[in-house]
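## Example pair
The file below holds two records. Each record gives the amino-acid sequence first, followed by its structure token line.
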Amino acid sequence: MALEIRKAERRRARLRVGLSGPSGSGKTYSALLLGRGLTDQWEKVLLIDTENGSGELYSDLGAYNVITLQAPFSPEKYIEAIRAAEDAGMEVIVIDSTSHEWDGKGGCLEINELIAKTKFKGNTWSAWSETTPRHQKFIEAIVSSSCHVVTTARSKTDTIQTEDKKVKKIGLKEIQREGFEYELTVNFTLDRDGHYAVASKDRTGIFIERDPFIISQKTGQELLAWTESGKENPALDPAMRLNRQIVAHLRALGEKADTPEAVAEAVLRLTSLERTPENFAAIAEALATIIQDRKNTPAKKADPTLGEVPPEQEPDLPAKAPAPAKKV
């Protein structure tokens, strides 16, 4: 097949935005505000929380959704949470934080140590042949997601003495595998003292020359406007819309559609189709037909022989016999 040569053009894409900084720099709060700017309602934002419930401390912002992950923080557990968010029809996924997938309890570093001890006679270098593909699947789940994804990562901290002799904590290298930020559209580093953000990477060109600023909902709106100004991506947008349509149809039919497994089971039971991207259009059409058929089917009247008789079908009762005349 001949290779196609065409003019380059920027197409719409889901955003991958990273926030890194030391503890206390405002990563979670900033990520939620940024995420809200990427969608028109809080109900379409889902936070994957690995920080012992700290993500729910900001519930006063709006009715966003939460999935709480507990150790072990394996790549597969993150991938499962991402898929669950997609299947629930979310538009923005906030992963707070990705550092646990790499350096947390049961994360990639611990996984690699265990594999090295049990399968490679302590050779950690050889063990990466098994650990790296698992980590790469986590990256691919972020990059290929049908949702906008906002990630946070902890930074290693150090202390310095400022010119006025005060001690200040600063963020150094983020706790994730080398090169993680290369997969992102934009990456911000946050300052611990003033929560100011600086773009360390920016493919949009919006923030790279901007002075340090505080991330807000407007930041997300700017990024959304940038991506939506691109040409429609036929390979991405229809699949995302169909996926959300399928979940909405299932809920309209009274099905539980809050996990990937539940969605797949309901789809197979109702349509006899496997839930795969190539079947999305057929599944959505089949579910829409089921909904319409149920609307057009008149409600059955109650059967008098099976239970309570409807008022209009109550049999005539015999007239009450007259009381006998009293004898005098």
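Second record, same layout:
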Amino acid sequence: MWPEGDHTQELLNNAKEGDDYAAGQLLDRHRDALRRMVEMRLDRRIQQRVDASDIVQEVMIEANRRLRKYLDDPVMPFHLWLRQMAKDRIIDAHRRHRASGKRSVDREQGMVAPAAMDRSTIELAAQLCDPELTPAAAATMQELQRRFQAAIETMDDHDREIVLMRHFEQLSNQDVAQSLKLSEPAASMRYLRAMRRLRKLLSEPSDEGDFA
């Protein structure tokens, strides 16, 4: 999901030398990945009030302001630095809009569309539900999509986060460990445990009928 590292490093080097165009390109090429990351984590009810693109724009402005300091002391990979700022913005949005009061999103009702699921997600869901189910068959199963989305949303926050990071964002175990401040073996074990719990959730009977 995140832009490849070699070109990013080249842009970082040029930006550090004072190339303003490279700095702009550096931010622009991460915009789409950042937006997808925000959409994955922004409560769907809150998305009725807060556009993910607005949060991304706030992150871009903050990143541009802080870029020189980052270039002088890059404490983490650039994409992790950006997503950390985005996570802080998401937390702020949840605090504002989930606060108690008449306008809290918890008091609002309304239908929202489920998160989009690409082919790789459907294939993962198929493997967890039934290893013998072919990707071609799984891709046509709306029930599989519904159950997978419901399972993700009911997971513990820590489990859901690491599944999103590893599978949906396609971050390496090293990136996950650094972002979560864990050792690499601990991050790997947390991911494996989360996947076992996700498999268990998917194996439970559906309220609307199971599928075979």
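Notes on the second record: The domain at 5-107 is CATH 1.10.1740.10 (Rna Polymerase Sigma Factor; Chain: A). The chain has two domains: 5-107, 119-203.
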